[in-house]
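can u do me a favor
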């Protein structure tokens, strides 16, 4: 099976060359674009599997590119940007980005994010029957039965905790912002909801991340949101 086709949108030629060299070295197929107009054209013409997107483009803001692509495609978009403020990350993720990498980044980090996104692409191709059960390490969710297990122990979750767990599981490896989670769980995103979210996430993590030596399933991105990690 061929590795995914990746569209690299980066106007800084040195960074563009660095990223494409990394991709070429690891046998990824790729396309490049130096501005927003080229990015939209390449994305619509070639339908890449993954987009690596810089936000600071010369002709438009990268967030606008995310919004445009999201009007017609769910292709994964990984932002690679020097903007490291929480508000910038939240804006990009809420616009529809799947992940956010801050410059400067390591080769290992970029490859890890690509592997995680590739796994999600593979998982999305599974049949509905396969999707009826989610497995990640020792964590198992049986959607039809409405129950979850950790190893051979059934987890006793409240309805909200179960909904949160399912939401994270269906987006494994992807950062979900506070706003997105609150809208999915409560249908709103007020100040009281974020306080409730933190309480429910804390109790959920105690139940599935209870072992000090065991894998940590839920990663907190302070000021941004949460991500379920893929456990091998």
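np, heres the sequence
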């Amino acid at each position: 099976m061929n590795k995914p086709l990746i569209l690299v949108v980066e106007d800084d030629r040195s960074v563009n060359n660095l990223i494409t060299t990394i991709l070429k070295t690891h046998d990824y197929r790729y396309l490049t674009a130096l501005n927003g107009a080229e990015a939209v054209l390449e994305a619509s013409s070639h339908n890449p599997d993954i987009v690596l997107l810089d936000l600071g483009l010369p002709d438009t803001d990268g967030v606008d590119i995310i919004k445009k692509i999201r009007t017609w495609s769910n292709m994964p978009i990984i932002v690679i940007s020097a903007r490291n403020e929480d508000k910038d990350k939240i804006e990009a993720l809420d616009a529809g980005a799947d992940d956010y990498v801050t410059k400067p980044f390591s080769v290992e980090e970029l490859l890890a994010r690509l592997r995680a996104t590739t796994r999600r692409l593979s998982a999305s191709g599974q049949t509905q029957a396969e999707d009826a059960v989610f497995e990640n390490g020792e964590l198992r969710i049986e959607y039809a039965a409405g129950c979850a297990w950790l190893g051979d122990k059934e987890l006793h979750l409240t309805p909200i905790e179960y909904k949160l767990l399912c939401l994270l599981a269906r987006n494994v490896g992807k950062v979900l912002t506070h706003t997105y989670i609150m809208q999915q769980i409560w249908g709103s995103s007020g100040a009281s909801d974020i306080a409730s979210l933190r309480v429910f996430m804390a109790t959920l993590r105690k139940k599935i991340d209870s072992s000090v030596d065991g894998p940590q399933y839920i990663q907190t991105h302070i000021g941004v949101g949460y991500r379920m990690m893929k456990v091998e």
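Residues 20 and 118 are 17 Å apart (CA to CA). hope that helps!!
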